[in-house]
Known about the structure:
This protein has helices at 3-19, 21-41, 46-79, 84-111, 113-119, 129-153, 157-180, 186-210, 228-258, 260-272, 274-296, 300-327, 329-333, 338-367, 376-395, 403-415, 418-427, 441-444, 463-476, 482-492, 501-512, 516-524, 529-532, 539-551, 564-574, 597-607, 621-630, 644-648, and strands spanning 447-450, 457-458, 535-536, 555-560, 583-586, 614-618, 634-637. By secondary structure, it is mainly alpha-helical. It has four domains: 1-41 and 275-433, no CATH class; 44-226, no CATH class; 443-460 and 535-648, HAD superfamily/HAD-like (Rossmann fold); 463-531, no CATH class. The radius of gyration is 32 Å and the shape is elongated.
Amino acid sequence: MTRVEKKDFWIYFKKTFKSGNYLLLRNLLSSILYIIISVVSNLLQVKELTYLNAFLSLAYFSSMISFGISSGILVFVNQNIESKERVSRYVRSGFELNLIVSTIFTALLVAFPRFFMEAITGYVPNDYTFYYIMCVYFFISCIYEYLCDIIQNFELFKMNIFVVNTPLILIIVSFLILYLGGIFYLNLIAIMYVVAYLAGTIFATFCVMRNNKFKINIFKPTRLNLTIRQWKLLMSNFLIEIIWEVGYYATSVALLRADEGIFNTYSYLENVLDIFNGFLFTFVTITSIRITRALGYNRFNEAYKHAKFSIYGTLIIWAFYAVASMILIYPIALGVNDTYFQLMFTALPSYVFIHLFRFISWTFASYILKLGGKTTALLIMEIISTIYLIALCFFIQFLPQNVFLIYVMISLNEIVPIPVYFCIFKSKKWMVNVNEDPKLLSNKVKVFIFDFDDTLYYGLNWDFWTKILQNYFNNHFSYLTDKEKVSLCQKVIHKNNVECDEDLCRMLIYVDGTCQNWREYRQTLPLDEEEKNVTLIDREELLKFVKQARDKNGGIYIVSNSTQGDIKKFCEYHNFDLSIFDAVITNDFKTADSTKEEIFKQLMYKHNVKPDEVLVIGDSYKHDIIPAKNLKMNYYKCKNGFSYEEVVS
Length: 649
């Protein structure tokens, strides 16, 4: 780094930790609580400890399910953070997908207990009661972890302290109560995990639904309405995390098969040294939020600077991690079983050294490269890495029982890909804006077509218009008896009375061949009080459609079954600016079957656009949506108004 870059980096480094001070506090507190849990769990007998560690390793799948889904969702959230509608829809879509996947995985755990515990870990429990209770914990923690990720990405770090640490405190309290009561056995431990994480999930749900800015109702269905490209990004993130977790679990299995002492020591170090990971996770979390938001605004140079500083920061944090862990080795080791006390001093240097490569690998893969949506290379490398670790499970027991050698073998999958990650990072091909997806309506539509009545305004009671229509009909056909009028209505419109503009137009066209007199008469009528008190669509929302149409060299139109005079009269009273539209086109009902479809065709021809580059917005399924569907256009059926984000999303 140049002198200027060094100065910028240290300013950035300090600001990052300052902005994430509550997140750092949360991570440190969580790490301390994990250390306490590790210490008190060592009160278990060695076999029980092995069983608990084995299942908790398996249960890491819950965090990977939620993290895999949320990491993709949060790319969409951060790159659309100014749009409440999109953020809400993405969060709710992720919650639904997380719920579906969690249910499937939990069902697999329940269905194949022997496979997951005996065949994989090689451990045969006395009974499976503990296992099945922990399956419930697995499902709850999937939901809990997803909500925690969402809260964290909204930068609600202060609230996140309580959400994340509440279950851990409850677990510690429960451990101590059980131990002091002399009933310290596995089934009650499983129950306490369920209760603790259920409390955390309820707390997290409340925070998501009651946060000041978004207030997202996660239980409102979305039908997982994502584009193909968004699905690819989401599922690739999900697969990367799941495959990574398979590899992580394979690592645990390989260590367990190599040496039970190394396995339990490794599990212990994973928990107690997590306090130092808190610094890394704070730094890269804040950085990753900045990267994705910069990408969302097409500020690629800014995103690259954030990413580069993230790598520098990782190296500094690892150096602190290495020194601090060596200093604190003795007090850290005090909580471990006497059997593994000496082994701890042998394993720690190797464990810390290997984490240098892990930190760099995590920073590249999880917190930089995936943020841009280019995940194919990462997915391929993750598959190769996991295949290697699974193979390692079968031949590791034939290796010399050397701690450093075993740690290197289980970390080769982290070390080897680093040059590839670096090349991808330097090429800058990972820096893309997901909002540039050509399949998104906000990037694809060139021509917007609006209905007028009950679309550009709403809240009108149409009863008074029905009476006007019926009076005009009765006067025009006064030479007919009431019975003949009903018969005529049944024949033409299949009703006993005219109820809408179209009914009367069809009647007049059928009898006289024209409805011109009615349309002229309608324009002479003054605005009714009902029309004076309607709600108009916000002009700023319409200007967003105008901007997109201009940017795409397209157009924005009103196509209505009302008359020009009616529309002009209404807009003059309400000071509604018609000049923002390229044209106001009215349907003249020249034939009994005249619809808006022909007008839509003419507008497509005028702008030389494809049907999927046109968006029709209206309130009537019959008059607006069906013609659009027949022409294979995009359409949006509104009710009581709409917003730009709501439509193009």
